[in-house]
Amino acid sequence: MPDPPSPRRTHPVVDAFFPDVTDRVPFGGLHGADPLAFRVYEPDRVVLGKRMEDHLRIAVCLWHSFNWPGSDVFGVGTFDRPWLNPAAEPMAAARAKLDAAFEFLQKLGMPYFCFHDRDVAPEGNSWRETQRILDEIIDDIGRRMSDTGVKLLWGTANLFSHPRYAAGAATNPDPEIFAVAAAQVKSMLEATQRLGGENYVLWGGREGYESLLNTDLAREEQQLARFLALVAEHKHRIGFDGMLLLEPKPQEPTKHQYDYDAATVLGFLQRHDLAGEYRVNLEVNHATLAGHSFHHEIATAIAGGIFGSVDANRGDPQNGWDTDQFPGSVEELSLAVYEIVQAGGFTSGGFNFDTKLRRQSMDRTDLFHAHIGGIDTVARSLLVAARLIEDGELKRLRNERYAGWNGELGRTLLGETDLDAIAERVLGGDIDPRPVSGRQERIENLVNKAIWSVDAETASVAGARAG
User: Fold this and answer.
1) Is the pLDDT of residue 7 over 60?
2) Disulfide: which of 39, 266, 294, 398 matches 284 by Cβ 3.0-4.6 Å?
3) Which pairing describes strands 278-283 and 307-311: parallel, antiparallel, or unpaired?
4) Phi, psi at 147, each rounded to 5°
5) Helices (H), 69-202
6) Are 462 and 29 in contact (CB under 8 A)?
7) Residue 244 contacts residue 232 (beta carbons within 8 Å)
8) Which helix (H) or strand (E) holds 116?
9) Pick from 291, 233, 285, 223: which is nearest to 263 by CA?
10) What is the pLDDT of residue 4?
């Protein structure tokens, strides 16, 4: 039996920031006329024995959606965001931002959110004052979570925006900055625990280099390893039950970032005796920047035993930077979701929408349109993945390709033997290999069939409901 839905309540909103959306976003079906309704996403729909909401565990991020005014390097903010009034008193502005965020979270109806410390709490004039401000805001967030039933998928510390972190946090050449960063992570890890957060993320946006001419690579790797060891030690000391997650990215804002991709992180963790302490939070756009498909990154992390969570978005193949667009390609996501579900699904991770509106999408309601479309894309990808799993042909063909390794020769080669024995067996004529087809095109057709059949079924169900 699927788990019962989690309790979430929609409270009446006074002076609403999103007046065009008066209640929770409904399910409207594929042919529904309401643009502010889900076409595919149904939280209670059972897929492979589990509710869709429990498969996907979708979260909204506070940074891009509520902290970004729509600015870029060429221009100021374009968005209508009254909660970002720079003339407002800082704590009043922080609470207005939370008002807007929790109104949105309730109306969108997703179970989780994610945030950095600086997304919600401004820095004070001293570390002590900064800590007091964060504690006060965390108490406020806790009350709002209790009132609404919305949960925290993960928290994190912003170790990249302040000028002190221009040369990195853990990898900074100044040990005093390392110390401040460590204190900031300690504070935010404990805040995440207070709020019942299910994971803690570290994104090393400035843990890399701009030039090798002034960089000691060996020293910076040791510093990063020490920093991560300290965080893992503190996690165990305070009894935090969630996963620690590293988020790979190849570059931007640095020229080169040390946790380049999933394989790089795996090697780093093994090299520094941190395997088992950390997993990865994989972002679609970061995979694009690293020259990989998202499917590749997910499969690599699962094979290495370090898969944890996902930042759902997409990049633009024409741009060489992190565009963080809302996901819109079922073809891109379906095989990644297939790997996740085939491997047992998320434990404490989920799909966090680390996504940005385009600067010309200025209306507040555009946040709803964007999230609805992205969530429907992920939901359709889940249905395609489920179809592939139920059909079983993709898994059967993959297993069949390696069937020889289950035979006597395969077991011997992977067991007790040496090169002399292997060569003698080849010379004796016992081995006469013949290449066989990899059947790639046949398998690609299976994937297309799953996509098309889900599309046809969705349209059929929508038509029946409309009738």
Assistant:
1) no
2) 294
3) parallel
4) -70, -35
5) 90-108, 117-120, 127-148, 175-194
6) yes
7) yes
8) strand 112-116
9) 291
10) 47
pTM attached to this predicted model: 0.95
Condensed to tens digits (0 to 9), the pLDDT of residues 23-47 reads 999 999 999 999 999 999 999 999 9
Distance CA 452, CA 200 (A): 38
Computed on alpha carbons and rounded to an integer, the radius of gyration of the chain in Å comes to: 24
Q: What are phi and psi of 199, to 5 degrees?
A: -155, 165
135 flagged as catalytic: no
Beta-carbon contacts of 388 under 8 Å, excluding residues fewer than 6 positions away, are: 334, 338, 394, 446, 447, 450
**Structural domains of the chain sorted by starting position, each given as residue range(s) with its CATH number in brackets:** 47-391 (3.20.20.150), 394-431+443-466 (no CATH)
Q: Which of 125, 127, 281, 116 is nearest to 188 (CA)?
A: 116
Structural tokens at position 242 = 């969630």
Q: What is the pLDDT of residues 101-160, one digit of tens each?
A: 999 999 999 999 999 999 999 999 999 999 999 999 999 999 999 999 999 999 999 999
Choosing from 55, 116, 286, 292, the catalytic residue is: 116
Instruction: Name the catalytic one among 119, 259, 311, 354.
Output: 119
Structure tokens at 289: 């920047």
- Annotated active-site residue 72? The verdict is no
